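To whoever is on call:

I kicked off a structure prediction for a single chain this morning and the downstream step that reads the tokens threw a length-mismatch warning. I double-checked the sequence; it's 165 residues and nothing unusual in it as far as I can see. Pasting both halves so you can look.
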Amino acid sequence: MLIREIRMQDAENLLILIKEVERTSAFMLMEPGEREMTLEQQQKRIEIMDKQNNSTIFVAEENGKLIGYLFVMGGSTKRTKHSAYLVIGILQEHRGKGIGTKLFEHVTTWASNHDISRLELTVVTENESGVALYKRSGFDIEGTKRNSLMINDRAYDEYYMSKLL
């Protein structure tokens, strides 16, 4: 398995990967079928992130197929440029195999080389495997975002988590 930064030619496969992760994950922000991003929009997103020193997308690739991603979205103001918000997704059949750990190792090294001293994310409190992964990767719970998401007509809380570098 290879962890690397996104390339423009990955745009279509990344879009397919994101939609599959959302289809098979109970705790993603968007529900299955809700994302309406076009290939052109995905390409533009990659292009914009590529121009920002504090943003990138990492992908996990196995046998030429994308199996996971980690979006790194750096702050856009002078006061937040040191901070990046993370979003991770891994294909269901590849979860629990250390891919998330490897993605977080890569982003930590990358962040240190890009003047980022704070990584942050949110996670549904009941997503036990996600919370465990983030804690193993050095993230701490900072607080709880109450009734943050409505999933199948039920309110869920999210943890705010961060890692200081």
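Update from on-call: the warning came from a stale cache, not from the record. Cleared it. Sanity check on the structure: The chain is about 30% helix and 35% strand.
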